[in-house]
Amino acid sequence: METGITQVDSFLYSNPQFDGRTVVVAVLDTGVDPGAPGMQSTSTGEVKLLDLVDCSGAGTVKMGTTAKKSDSGVVMGLSGRSLRIPEHWPVPQNGEYQIGIKSAFSLLPNDVLKEMAKKNKTAAELANNKLLVNAMHALSAHESEFAVLSSSDVKQIEIRADLKARIQALKQFMKDFKDPGPVFDCITFHDGTRWLAAIDISQNGDLSTTELLPDYSDGHKFSSFGQDSRLNYSFKIYDAGQTLSIVTTTGSHGTHVAAITAAHFPDGESGFDGVAPGAQIISLKIGDARLGGAETAQSLVRAAIELAKRKVDVVNVSFGEHAGTYDYGRFTELIRDDVINKLGTVFVTSAGNSGPILSSLSHPGGNSGVITVGAYVTQSMQEDMYALLETVPERAFSFSSNGPTLDGAVGVDIYAPGAAITSVPQSTKSVHQLMNGTSMSSPNAAGCVALLISGLKQIGKTNVSPYRVAYALKRSAKQFGDAFGIGIVQVENAWEMLINDTSNLLDVFYDVSVKGVNPGRGIYLRNAVETSTHHQFGVKVSPRFPDSDSPAATDLKLQFDASIRFESSHPEWIRAPQFARMAHSGREFLVDVDPTGLAPGLHVGRIFGFDSNGKETGDNAVPLFEIPVTVCKAENDGGNSNGLALRVFKGLTFGSGDIVRRYLDVPHGANFATLTIKTMDRIGNALFMIQFGQLHQNIASTVFETRARVNLSSTTSGAASDDFKWAKSFQVLGGKTAELVICQAWSTLGATTVDVQIEFHGLDLSCSTSPYTDSGNSHGGTHLFLNSGNAAVARFDIASRLRAEALCAPSILLNSLQKAVRPTEEAVISALTAQRDILPDGKQLFELVLSYTFQVAEEGNVLPLFPHVLNAIYDSSYESFYIQIYDSQKSLQSYHQSKPEKTKLKEGTHTARVQFVSSDLAALERLKSCVLIINFELKKSISLKSSKSISGALSNTLPVEKTLLKKGECLSFWCAGVDDSLIPKHASPGDLLLGSAKVLDAGASNGASALNLFKVSYLVQAPESKAKDASSEAASVPSSLGTETPLKEGESSALLKLQQEIRDLEIASVKKLNSDIQARTVLMERLQKDHSDHIPFLVARLEAYAADFEKLQKKDGLGVGITDEPVIQSITNACDAISGAIDSTALAQYFALKVDLAAGGEVAKTKKKDMETQKAALVLSLLWKARMKRNAVLVSGGDEGVLMTEFDAILINLAPWLGSSDAAADGRYLQLWAWRLRHKGLPGSALSYLNKYLSDSKNNGSGESDKAGKGALWKVLQKEKSEVLKELGWDFWTEFEQRWDARRSPAAFEAF
């Protein structure tokens, strides 16, 4: 641990009691392992980890189901396991347990899951081998006993086939093995004193092997998922036991960070203590295991709520994401206004690892009030941690992000050591690990802050504002030559400043606001129009007072009267007033900046605001605030240029960590560039970091940035050589100044000389639905929109703006389909839990849950999008946004937040559940009908070829060939619309086909042809309408499917149609009256009188009686049969009525023939529909006849031979009507067939059929319309399979299926 450079060692030597004791540090990260070395106690013997909280929601378990212990001491878990309650457990106060279920896939980190999966597969192989050996022995014994079988030995033939089926099933189990992962039953209860919880780690129901734990804050107890994984966990229990949060780590990062700040090793392991070993830690996990450990808006806001509740002294956040705005977003606002300003917490965060390019900070770094920390490397770190052959000059790490922020603030506040070897979680199987990054410098600085606050508390200075602490750290830092004047933390210097400077002017934060089109917190001039103009800016500086609404703040405001003396760091080009008087409301003034005379390159200046009444003057004076001015002046001639489109820089020399920055005016009209770097006189490989970036208002800096880490190869030729050349093409923004950064990595030894060339290219592509460019719908730029409804042909015009370009034969490639989906269920707004979701100002958070059902026509990648929240995390205007995608069985398939990520989904029906969280109910109301955008990747792309003329496009002739387009030339070509036959079947009018225009030849530039320069959207039009058949009107009157009331004289077909509609409405009502048997009976008697042989009525009647039977069976007849004779007779009679109403011979003859529907027109189609209705009715009647025979067998209790013969006869009659050579492919038939096999003692054969059916995803009811009830049937057959496995005595696979069932078809959706 590097503590010398920051004066920590000398400070603690002089003040050993100021080691962080009495200070609480909150660590917002991936969680902290309570079992990791150094995480048990402080230097004074207090508990190190005060609390462990999962703010992500990944560990949340809904515990809304109550259960009581049976007389045998068992509680039935939601997984289906019997949970055995240990006798030594206390008795619940109310006699009830709360139970829930949790899948490990939303809880545990990926590396632990992989380790568990490997272990589980090994266990499966061992268990399966034992079963396989037994099965083979049984088959061998049978073959020995019945060596020769004749065709008459039916029973023994079936037994042998069954034994073989068992062997085959066992082999297939291992071949198809996919670990379902752990599925844990969870239990909570109140023992009269406190809430307790446990999870079934064993997954076998034996709770004696797991620990019963209270909330972690009550006793600081934790347990482990097993000696193999060593992944520790603890509990938070909310909402009177209704919500259980299982808290574990999602990686090693958070533990490492916490150890840097405050680890303590009581045994005195030299050099391993953290910076502030006396400090205590609260772990707020913001890394979501469901998203690979990434933070979410929800985890950040919940962490902010926890910080406000707990009033910690210091916060460290070593996380971050890029964003396009500063001081904006719910998390940012909560931190700024409540945590820092109101509670006085010092908030420390990492700058990010996206440097050395400018404006590369990650949020929350760079926001007002936070302390943003860059990473520094010392020579002692190089020797102790990196084992370099030789040390290099101390400096910032090459990767450390830099300011200014996009709105002109300095960005980085201080530097601290950016690497450490310290503790990691026990699950890593390591004691310590080397990590580097600003993630390590931030907790080092946080530890330094903890030392200062520890000292201040112990000398009675408990009211020091976080702004004064930040002021002291920044103003006392040790300079090392940073371009922005940022220094390294110096604890002793900061301490002296804190205890000696008592001016109340330092207890406030000075908000700087620069007025203009793009207002900011500083002045940032970068584009050519900005750096070539003399400017005057209006600036307002406003003091922000701690806890600004408190009486103490009011007193401070009344006392505040600052006499400000301004000084410019560069008066030759930056000017400000000499003096200004400032009250608590702030002060406005003008600033003059004239960059016109500056040389090319980076220029950093300041306007300092000093207290003119301060004790220190001259060089000893330190400013109250500063107005940063940053100018990036482009090269006048671009080095050795050949016109605007080419920049050449020769002979650039580098040593370890050296950075070269060049600012380039990207020509107007440029949209891509090629960067080439050549090496010369280099011994050994050299790691270089290369970045090219441009900025655009309110867009994250990374959006228009290209970066690469390049190993430049050795050469001793003495001259630049193409053999050692690196080149890359990338997109650029024309007219925007770019920063080109080339940096030799700090750890790369030796000197390197390189030549650099950057070549700009500009192609302009526009399209129109008119053959002339001055009419029709015209589009250009980077996104072209083809409105196919307006024209069958689109005209394209491509021009080269900067140089000659080699074009391919242009084409449009469409590779995805975009649909806009409206919510399919009523939107629900509800209040979230009171314990976790109340904002610091007392406002309740509400959630809006939207459900979107959509179809995946073919397995492939799917991308869900909400455009107005894309990439918004730290700057999100909502407290949370989350998407969960489920299949038709409620099995969770993927998680998404605002950062768009593709997910692979199988064919079928899926539901996206979307959660918005806000305290603003009106905002949620406005989102109730919000559209979800879904992009479906096409398995086969659609290509539109180009032609030289309109007629060529229509006839698919006259193709455009490769060509060289000279500078200034323009080429026109035409593309026909997408042929209807190529439109995906699942596309609807109004959908968009998305893709790109390919125009560059593959050999044009280095990778340029792969650039997606021009995106294309193609509007799917309505399908071609076909003329109606002459007979269609007559055919539109539904077929009778039985007798109808004949028309009386004078009555019209319209009246008949009305009568039929009334009849159909009454038939539909039969099912709705299942709960009112009397009313249903009256209605069916009337229908029987008027429509006795109308097939839909007969089917509705059978289904009504069948519902009565299933209700009885569910109540008390599962597996034993139903003895209610009236119900059975009603079903039998209903089946006979259907059979009697259908001419099965005529029906069979119809389906034996091939009917030409196109030739027969609407009449043929109507007849086909009628015949299919009859066929479905006949199948239904035969199925229920078979079920009645099965029921008779179950209740017979004696000789069942005749009944089984009749049962088999019905199945033989049924099979041909199922439309498949394999009747068991129909789940309804299989349900009966599997029962038959099991009843005959052939479970292996039954399992074989069940496995085949269940392995086909098309059978799980995920189709576009599950009218056949496949989803419910799939669950029934899945349960049947589990029963077969039990019958076989295959306990391992029974438990395996039980775990898969809990994942495949859970009872409820998961918590967000």
Automatic annotation (TrEMBL):
Keyword terms: Aminopeptidase, Hydrolase, Protease, Serine protease
Gene Ontology molecular functions: aminopeptidase activity; serine-type endopeptidase activity; tripeptidyl-peptidase activity
GO biological process assignments: proteolysis
Reactions the enzyme catalyzes: Release of an N-terminal tripeptide from a polypeptide
Domain Tripeptidyl-peptidase II first Ig-like: 512-631
Signal peptide: none
Domain of life (superkingdom): Eukaryota
SUPFAM superfamilies associated with the record: Subtilisin-like
Domain Tripeptidyl-peptidase II galactose-binding: 655-750
UniProt EC number: 3.4.14.10
A Pfam family hit: TPPII
Annotated spans, Disordered: 1029-1048
GO cellular component entries: cytosol
Sequence ranges assigned to domain Peptidase S8/S53 in this UniProt record: 20-479
Keyword Zinc attributed: no
Active site: D29, H253, S439
Annotated transmembrane regions: none
Record domain Tripeptidyl peptidase II second Ig-like: where: 803-987
PANTHER family, per database record: PEPTIDASE S8, TRIPEPTIDYL-PEPTIDASE 2
Family in the record: Belongs to the peptidase S8 family.
Protein name: tripeptidyl-peptidase II
Organism: Chytriomyces confervae
Taxonomic lineage from the root: Eukaryota, Fungi, Fungi incertae sedis, Chytridiomycota, Chytridiomycota incertae sedis
